[in-house]
Amino acid sequence: MFETDPEKPARSNLQVLLGFLLGIVAGLGCLFVAIFFGKAFGDDQRGRWIYPAIDAIALILLGIFALKRVRDSSFALGAVIALALALLFDAAFAAYLAR
Fold this sequence. Notes:
The chain is mainly alpha-helical. The protein has one domain (about 15-99). The protein has three helices and no strands. α2 (about 50-65) runs antiparallel to α3 (about 75-99).
């Protein structure tokens, strides 16, 4: 008879907080991956820029993965927030290294 719009699922603040913590852990994982690959690909004097570059690539890829699931999960929303903050800190560190 009358069609109603499907209700949006309610977001739980606890799930967003836990997703934020999960995003922090994922950001630290990206940092360790960047350190590992940075040591493998570059030396310390000439290639200092490679650490924030690899970290940014890893954070962006993980953020895209989480962003695709934001509508379905509150965990993904918290993870996207944490990964966006980590990317901002990474950009600030890259700007510091560039000067």
